[in-house]
Design goal:
heterodimer, A: mainly alpha, two-stranded antiparallel sheet, 2% strand, B: Alkaline Phosphatase, subunit A, nine-stranded mixed beta sheet, three-stranded antiparallel beta sheet, 14 strands, globular, disordered N terminus
Amino acid sequence: MALDPRGAALALHRFGFGPRAGTIAAIASDPQGAFIADLDRPKAGLIPDAGLLGSGAANRMAFEFNAERLAKQRLETRRKELAKQEAAKLAAENPAMQNAAMENGGMEKPAEAKAATPLPPGPETPILQNFFHEAEAHYRAAITAEIGFVERLVWFWSNHFCVNAISTVMAGAYEREAIRPHVLGKFADLLLAAESHPAMLVYLDNASSMGPNSVAGINRNRGLNENLGREILELHTLGVRSGYTQDDVVSFAKVITGWTIYTTDNNPDHGGQFLFHPRLHEPGPQTVLGKAYRDTGVEQGRAVLTDLARHPATALHVATKLARHFIADEPPSALVEALRRKFIETDGDLWLVSKALLAAPESWAPEQAKLKRPSEWIICSVRAAGFAGDARRIAAATTRLGEPLWRPPAPKGFPDGEADWIDGIAHRLDTANAIAQNPNYVDRVDPKAMLETALGPLASAETRSAVARAETKQQAITLLLMAPEFQRR
Amino acid sequence: MFAKPHASTRRELLLGSGALFAWAFVPKLARAEGRDPRFLTIVLRGGLDGLAAVAPVGDPDWVKLRGDNALKLDGATPALPLDGFFALNPAMPNLHRLYRAGQAIVVHAVATPYRERSHFDGQDVLESGLARPGRVDAGWLNRALTKLEPDDRVRTSTTGRRTFAVGPITPLVVRGPAPVLSWVPPRLPPVSDDTTMRLLDLYRHTDPTLARVLEDRIGLAALAPSASPDRKPGEMGPAVQIGNIDQVRTYFAEAAGAAAKFLANPDGPRVGALALDGWDTHINEGVVNGRLSQLLGALDAALAAIETNMSAAWSETVVTLITEFGRTARLNGNDGTDHGTATVALLVGGALKGGRVVADWPGLKEADLHEKRDLKATTDLRAVLKGLLRDHLRAEDCVLAADIFPGSDGVGAVEGSVG
């Protein structure tokens, strides 16, 4: 087979996070084979989680921290209240002091003034520390990946089944626990892992949903929350306007009542872990998409999810979204069809569907039709420069560019189209300029070598000339990071 | 929902990044016996057009060479006369005043030993002090510091003095084994219009969609240059103007002024360096009313800020303004100039024996030009720098040739710059 460095560079951008030093040459003899091999690695997708808190532990940590903080605040309020009472009592017993107190505006003043002194900025809360530990692991996996395809799949599925780090401290653990183990497994397993994960149950409010006729629902006069049920149908499986009705949403939401989490308040040992709570579960059979499901407790929900995973609409939805993410905003219908068929034929085997994506001729079209999302672009720039990357700075940069880590604007996740991101190009220019001001770049990065690393044969003559003719190294790096071949994939 | 994802301003961004950089240092600096010299090096990155900064108005071939763009002693905006043969760009009245007060020297037809035309390599040679590009571990100014022995004619301060650099990036000239303190001005250089225009040019040739977005964002849609093929009929195609020259002026003055404050402080550093970008004038150079004129004006204001902030220490100060190479003697097809060879070095400061132009003028006839296109170099920049390091900072001749500018034995120091 002839060497294909151009195909290698293209694929590294399209299916990975861009090349690192030497990757283009390393896989030029068989780019497609290298990407298939990435899928065949044992434990592909998993990352070392030493030192990272599991979702339950993270939840309990946050609970304890917040509880202690609240207690401190309460204690302080109580102390002030007591001091006030003491002063009033003292003043009542001594009229002379009462006058003095009135003259200087009240006895409690010194104490109050002291309490009002703002506390010095404290260290990062353990909640934020946990977030950055998770972010560090998340980014490190992408920055150090040799090929990067599996990591891109992790990012894709993590966004497809997104949660929000504002709603839950478990967002990072969720990606490791629910997404990573299944990105090359069966879609049904991924679906079940995501929907039953505590982070998802909290984010989409199912943890507090109760069957209207469940014991708890009757006793507490509370009821159903449709949020998770609806989003599973609309976003995670069938897709919007694919034929399900409001009745299906309600029935499905009832099916998954009782899918909740242990609260740390009541259960310090298991707080934050998944709990099927029969007392919250709507009793009786439910009909979803024309099929009746008898009440088998937690199994009722699993049965519906299993069927949703196999639904033809799900196959089309997933195939379209994958093709749109990796190949083009308006993906070629032949590619979507190939992925859809593979999904159906293999009962949603994501390993084989991912291979089908690599095998499709449309996947190797030379045109770089997709604009990278900001976070992809930032990771590409870190890899191209050969840096280790700093999670706090990367997270800050992606936030500025409108893509804060694990904080999507809505359950739909971050958008995937050029129109969604292209207006941010000028902001990327600011960011590229700031990156290029980083002294590490000037000390350690030769723009011409970086161009060969990052683009190699993908670089247009115009880009080569712009980088070579730049007035300073910083300007050369800025132009390289902003070049169309580096912005697109 | 996802209405305004791009909330942060450029300023916030730059401030955020500026806070990231700091260098550790160990104080070590020399001071001359009986004197307390200050030495500031300003690297003008991009290649300053020396003929546009200081024009050889007395050369009979000058006006032929540059035509309407040649600085002249007459006309609406006359150049400022220096010595009868050379005249200064009218955008630099402060420098002119200093020259007349004997506190500025212009060295003309000067160049480093580098004879190719790459910015990066040219800057490496300029700042490393080596004859060839390729090694970027240390600059000549840093090596000079390590060689200025205590108790020699220059002694080490005991009060925490040190060399330092201004700006987010420590210029190579001051990097190396001697520890460097770096100070970042609160205002970082903005993404320059030059960078933006280069990117826009790249996009126009390769990615019309990105070009359109960038044009919209920078409000330049109506300023499509005449080269743009999709220009609508009737649209003017004026020169691309610097939109943010005020920002550039502010940054130049703040960075240079801050450097001077540090150097003037009795407990501060004695040697410093900073870099000012933007001199790569390929298109619409604007010698009198355009871009280069504005940049030179900003530089002139920066020199004034240095003089002011140095206060009493000005009398012991030498500031050198150096650039990696000059530009073509003739204008190119875009009323700009391309990368060339010889240029000017500007020296200012109260310690100078100034009011002179130092030049072995090579002439401007085609046969006189380097490769028939660039001003020929007749003075080696290292000779100028050697003279300053020796006479101002008291570096030894043997050290200058062996360590600071290795391989420059044949390059004799220019005499008598400091008096």
